[in-house]
Design brief:
Elements: H1 6-9, E1 18-24, H2 27-37, H3 42-51, H4 60-63, H5 66-79, E2 89-91, H6 99-107, E3 112-121, E4 124-133, E5 148-154, E6 160-164, H7 169-189
Parallel strand pairs: 2-4
Antiparallel strand pairs: 1-3, 1-5, 3-4, 5-6
Length: 191
């Protein structure tokens, strides 16, 4: 989520235990899906995302769900304190979705989104990344363009959500600056 301090958010809430989360964490696929809903082919939508500077030249990791799976694994490992390997996350990308299927789903009020999910099950976690139909009036359904969304379920807060609306370069730059400041602060405290 670019500059949003997701990991440090829970440092400000000691003793809160994350039970699960779901959300949209990959802006490239979100842009591609939005463009395909409007009638572009997959290749045209990818080129549009690249022209906007959102998709990399080789967007394979985004399209096939790997980027979202890595982010899901990081959230699980850090926030849920359960080490997880990528192979343990059920993953499906967006390659199989057609413009017609996306258009019809949006028309019917159930657009497709690449959704990341994790849920604590005993001492383990079940996690998935894949395209899902979501209700258009739901928070997930309202996420368009390069926006991101994360909804956490915790033992104290049944629903805690963070939305980042179409971040730009400043948000990404802030994220890098914040990481640098944290790393510098941590290095000084270890001296």
């Amino acid at each position: 989520m670019d500059g949003v301090p997701i990991f440090s958010l829970f440092e400000q809430m000691p003793t809160v235990r994350v039970q699960g989360f779901h959300g949209i964490l990959n802006s490239t696929t979100n842009v591609i899906l939005s463009e395909m809903e409007g009638g572009l082919t997959f290749d045209q939508a990818l080129k549009e995302a690249q022209a906007l500077g959102i998709a990399e030249t080789d967007a394979t990791h985004d399209i096939d769900g790997w980027d979202a799976a890595v982010k899901t694994a990081a959230l699980i490992t850090v926030l849920m304190d359960i080490p997880v390997r990528l192979e343990e996350i059920e993953r499906e990308g967006i390659r199989g979705l057609t413009p017609q299927a996306l258009h019809n789903a949006r028309r019917d009020g159930w657009p497709f989104k690449l959704v990341c999910r994790a849920q604590r099950v005993g001492d383990a976690v079940e996690a998935t990344v894949g395209p899902e139909k979501v209700l258009s009036s739901s928070p997930l359904g309202k996420i368009t363009g390069s926006s991101s969304y994360l909804h956490f379920e915790t033992d104290i807060f049944p629903g805690l959500a963070v939305t980042e609306e179409n971040p730009g370069l400043y948000a990404t730059a802030y994220g890098m600056l914040a990481d640098f400041v944290r790393a510098t602060r941590d290095a000084r405290s270890n001296v």
